[in-house]
Amino acid sequence: MTRWAVQAEGLTKTYGRVRALDGLDLEIAPATVTALLGPNGAGKTTAVRVLATLLRPTAGRAVVAGHDVLRDPDAVRRTIGLAGQYAAVDENLTGEENLRLLARLHLLSPTVARRRAAELLEQFDLVDAGRRVSRTYSGGMRRRLDLAAALVNRPEVLFLDEPTTGLDPRSRQQLWEVLRGLVRDGTTLLLTTQYLEEADRLADDIVVIDRGRVQAQGTAGELKGRLGATRLTLGLGSPGDAHAAAVALDGVGVDLEVDGARVVLQVADGASALAQSAARLHRAGLAALTAEVTEPSLDDVFLRLTGAVAA
Amino acid sequence: MTTTAVSETSVSRSTPRPALASLTHTRLLVWRNLVTVLRDPQAAVFVLVQPVMFVLMFRYVFGGAIAVPGQSYVDYLMPGIFVQTVVFAGITTAVGLSTDMRTGIVDRLRSLPMAPWVVLAGRTFADTLRSAVVLVVMGLVGLAVGWRPEGSPLDLLVGAGLMLLFGHTLLWAYALVGLRSSTPEAAQAATFPLVFPLVFASSIFVPVASMPGWLQGFAENQPVSVTATAVRALAAGTDGDGAVLQSALWSIGLLAVLLPLASWSYRRAGS
After folding, report:
1. DSSP H helical segments within A18-138, as ranges?
2. Which of A92, A152, A174 sits opposite B35 (nearest CB)?
3. Measured CA angle at B175 (ends B173, B181), to 5 deg
4. Is the Cβ pair B32, A74 closer than 8 Å?
5. What average pLDDT does the segment B145-161 reach?
6. How far apart are CA A288 and CA B25, in angstroms?
7. A171 touches A143 (CB < 8 A)
């Protein structure tokens, strides 16, 4: 049996009649990045809060880093790091004091805590700022300090709830670099995001959730492929030819549409559909003047999934 | 940010005895909360200047119009205003906790392997220590404006201890308010209906005998008045008719209810 870094079965959390989580299943392999992707109110934050032991689920079970979140929450807490939606830093403490306090609360000795704080300040480019109270920090610096704070105990599993919200593109890129480094060193990362680009660029595995359930899961490529949203656009000589081509191409794609002198096909595999189309057109005595294959974007996938659910 | 930074510090994951760990956690959080007050000039002013202003105002502005039989008003006033100070001290407890909830600090602390009550203990013990400092400053100001306690130093120490115990007990009620409030502003607003009847329908500023009959029963026996009476007796070096014991029992009884209630509320915070 594989030992998952995070494993959840049927997680349910209800508030009165609202089901924030509705039977969420999740399996995350060690040293990978998983993005929980979903619209506002999909249950992303609730899922993270349950896995990080902040919230007791109404039903279901979850094991994080080998420990059950309900039966042994303190063991989970020793091995996780959490950075929530707000940069949870103490404004009246310096950056260094913030980190040292958390290290000490993790029961590291004063000497080790000091060393760990210094290390993290360096890693997050906060050495000079470390001596200033964090009230004076910019938004990006606070975010970095907050993330550093989540790492004082070298967590095996790191939960980040919308880590790059409010960051400028450059800071976002920098943060992604740091996160990739952590995963290379063996950390398992679960992050929530509303940014498709972030999920696409950072995550090995994307879990699309909506209404408290998993709607789809896979790599970015798999999700795009499985939902068959690749488009093949063929340009014919005239609208008449296009209609004749539509008849000849019947059954090549999952969907076919004539638009003026163009035929647009929704296909699963762009290359083989192109070859097949060329052969069929040739047999029908037609020829395409232009051909274009457009790969689907994750946006298409996301809208299809969550839109289909909402409809 | 350096992505290649080599971090060598190993973080061993030992599990020491829980009681010892909780003591360390509480001590660290007390330090954090005290530093926070010291570095926030607004908070420092609120904490220190306001009680001193109350002393001066009641001594020189209202004091002339209030007659207390058999005692100079300043000697009547000072023990009362000490008690008022420890009772009001909890407003910052409620606001501070609520702010920590709002900014996500409580979430971060709850994601650490700590007993659920240490965050509240760190807050309430820090605020009690702060009250102790404020009491000393107020005592000195009192002496400067004519307060002449006749009790022994031991009596005064017992009085201070009694007030700090009572104040500490109330801090757990304030903590409960802070945890149940959605914003720091709401927390502050919620403390007023809790505190005002206790402070003003009491023997803190005026003798209960001057109040209408229907109010006297409450004003005489509620714990704020009992504590003020006890401290007055100790400061005057007289026998307080068991008020000292009564006040201590109030504190212990309330604490037995409030402490588990606040801890329970903390565990559920944010759910």
Report:
1. 44-51, 73-79, 95-105, 110-123
2. A92
3. 105
4. no
5. 93
6. 74
7. yes
Answer yes or no: are the C-beta atoms of A277 and A249 closer than 8 Å: yes
Length of chain A (residues): 311
The count of other CB atoms within 10 Å of the CB of residue B195 is: 21
Residue A200 · residue A41 · CB < 8 Å: no
Q: Which one-letter DSSP state was computed for residue A296?
A: P
Residue type, B86: V
CB neighbours of A117 closer than 8 A, spacing ≥ 6?
A96, A99, A100, A103, A130, A152
Condensed to tens digits (0 to 9), the pLDDT of residues B179-224 reads 998 888 999 899 888 888 888 888 888 888 888 888 888 888 899 9
Q: To which residue do tokens 């890129």 refer?
A: A173
Amino acid at A141: M
CA distance B24 to A34: 36
Complex-level ipTM: 0.85
- In chain A, the domains with their CATH numbers are 6-89+137-224 (3.40.50.300), 230-295 (3.30.70.100)
Considering CB atoms only, which of B5, B11, B32 is closest to A116? B11
- Residue B72: Cβ within 10 Å count: 12
Whole-number Å distance between alpha carbons of A146 and A149: 5
CB-based contact A206:A175 (threshold 8 Å): no
Of the candidates A277, A304, A300, A303, the one whose C-alpha atom is nearest the C-alpha of residue A288 is A277
Phi first, then psi, for residue B101 (nearest 5°) are -70, -45
Q: How much is the pTM?
A: 0.82
Residues in A closer than 8 angstroms to B114, CB to CB, are 105
Longest dimension (CA), chain B: 78
- The answer to whether the CB atoms of B108 and A102 lie below 8 A apart is yes
CA distance B26 to A105: 9
Cβ-contact A82, A150 below 8 angstroms: yes
Minimal Cβ distance to B1: which of A52, A152, A177: A177
Q: Is the pLDDT of residue B6 over 50?
A: no
> How does pLDDT run across B213-232, given as a tens digit for each residue?
888 888 888 999 999 999 99
The CA distance from B54 to B59, in Å, is 8
